[in-house]
Specification:
By secondary structure, the protein is of the alpha+beta class. The chain has 18 helices and 24 strands. It has 2 domains: 257 residues, Aminohydrolase, N-terminal nucleophile (Ntn) domain (Glutamine Phosphoribosylpyrophosphate, subunit 1, domain 1); 188 residues, Rossmann fold, CATH 3.40.50.
């Protein structure tokens, strides 16, 4: 329901667990439930019991897809799971993850968070070698490359370390072929593997249970199932968990760290740890810096619930303006497949938010949001506050203007949909009808992150700065490029 929210959409959440003696499918269900914010289009779980693999996946939310009946068939001691929001490959059941295939080495399943920038090249390479593809997702391409013997890829693969584990060799080969962002979990009949791209663009963390280990996109999924957080998977690292325990391998030499800065701005759950610091604390720091850079004469500070609330609290702390609630959110409107009719579409903001008029009447309001991407909800939100009695509305955004598309797994891939690419700040202010508008500077955002985490790490800021941490093929910048790039083969 994109007309209800002006946010970049995250692509996926991945989860994996190796825990003999535990109901790993049930653990994965609750792990995916904790990661539901990262993708709401589809979900799936695959398990293995040492001989066979089993899978159930479908369109919808985790709670809509799984029940006690279909969970009973997901037996074993190792499992992986996936929540999907589509980036490459459209909204269709054929693109739902994990992908499970049979190989010469037994069953293998893969789930992927991210986006490959050389997917078009890899797709052509697979098709030319006679590999049939059933979907339009780059994840299926990764699955097929993993299944193929390393020697089939010739000189394009340069292995850096010998190993007696064929799957480590195949994962390393994939990492030398794949460009872009990927955090992946892989299931074989008796082991769990995980890998992260050399820049660490997408998050992936490791936790422990008394019976084994857990891999997840965010640490919030670990605490949900009682796992203890250990650390994040290093860029370029491969992890293996099996009966021998936990082992780490070099998949590809790490490059300059480039964790997506939008994880701090919006994507990650506020109770997750990134770089060892809770995201909620970082967002408060962004709000404090925003208040220093863009003060306003006002009576109250409110946040757009729920993601902007920490930044609004920080703005209030630094400005000494009272924090209050001005909007209440219907948290379930995005959980229905019943689409509003055209009249309700036009009034879509009131489906999601209501104004708290008793808090707004006659007040000068600072409205804090975490980002403005397309600009399709800021205007009705400002009007909603005015209709609720606010005398002035000063909009403050706790991230810089989003001016450039993302090609690393976030669904904002064309320039024409980004309002800050088309309009300057004053024109955006006029468009949304605010009395004033200001964004946090890029330097201020990075400074707030580094201050909170306590060390000078580096981050991907491509959507703000236009500086990409990896080489982007020229064809990706074409206006017509979107997540349906491979759909032509299906007549779409």
């Amino acid at each position: 329901m994109t007309y209800l929210e002006d946010k970049p959409r995250e692509e996926c959440g991945v989860f994996g667990v190796f825990a003999p003696g535990r109901d790993v499918a049930r653990l994965t269900f609750f792990g995916l439930y904790a990661l539901q914010h990262r993708g709401q289009e589809a979900a799936g779980i695959a398990t293995a019991d040492g001989r066979r693999a089993y899978i159930h996946k479908d369109m919808g939310l985790v709670s809509q897809i799984f029940n006690e009946n279909n969970m009973r068939s997901l037996v074993g001691h190792v499992a992986i799971g996936h929540n999907r929001y589509s980036t490459t490959g459209g909204v269709h059941v054929r693109n739902v993850q994990p992908y499970l295939i049979e190989t010469v080495h037994g069953p293998m399943a893969l789930a992927h968070n991210g986006n490959l920038t050389n997917a078009l090249v890899l797709r052509q390479l697979l098709l030319q070698r006679g590999v049939g593809l059933t979907s339009t997702s780059d994840t299926e391409m990764m699955t097929q490359i993993l299944a193929s013997p390393v020697t089939n890829w010739g000189d394009q693969v340069s292995l850096t370390e010998d190993t007696d584990d064929v799957w480590i060799s195949h994962i390393r080969a994939l990492m030398h072929l794949a460009d872009g962002a990927y955090s992946i979990v892989i299931l074989t009949r008796n082991a769990l593997y995980a890998a992260r791209d050399p820049h660490g663009l997408r998050p992936l963390c490791l936790g422990s249970l008394p019976e084994g280990y857990v891999i997840a996109s965010e640490s919030c999924a670990l605490s949900t199932i009682g796992a203890e957080y250990i650390r994040y998977v290093e860029p370029g690292e491969i992890l293996r968990v099996d009966d021998r325990g936990l082992a780490s391998f070099v998949g590809k030499p790490p490059q300059k760290r480039s964790l997506c800065s939008f994880e701090y701005v919006y994507f990650a759950r506020p109770d997750s740890l990134l770089d060892g610091q809770m995201v909620h604390k970082v967002r408060q720091g962004m709000g404090r810096q925003l208040a220093r850079e863009a003060p306003a004469e006002a009576d109250i500070v409110i946040g757009v619930p729920d993601s902007a609330t920490p930044a609004a609290i920080g703005y209030s702390q630094a400005s000494q303006i009272t924090f209050s609630e001005g909007l209440t959110k219907n948290r379930y409107i995005g959980r229905t497949f019943i689409q509003p009719d055209e009249i309700l579409r036009q009034e879509s903001i009131t489906l999601k938010y209501n104004a708290l008029t008793s808090n707004l009447e006659g007040k000068r309001v600072v409205l804090v949001d975490d980002s403005i991407v397309r600009g399709n909800t800021a205007r009705p939100l400002v009007q909603l506050l005015r209709d609720g009695g606010a005398s002035e509305v000063h909009m403050r955004v706790s991230s810089p203007p989003v001016k450039h598309p993302c090609f690393m797994g976030v669904d904002m891939a064309t320039y024409h949909e980004l309002i800050a690419h088309r309009l300057d700040v004053d024109a955006i202010r006029a468009h949304i009808g605010a009395d004033s508008l200001a964004f946090l500077s890029l330097e201020g955002m990075l400074g707030a992150i580094r201050e909170a985490v306590g060390f000078p790490n580096t981050y991907c800021t491509a959507c703000f700065s236009g500086t990409y941490p990896i080489a982007i093929p020229e064809w990706l910048f074409a206006d017509e490029r979107d997540k349906f790039i491979f759909e032509g083969a299906w007549g779409g």
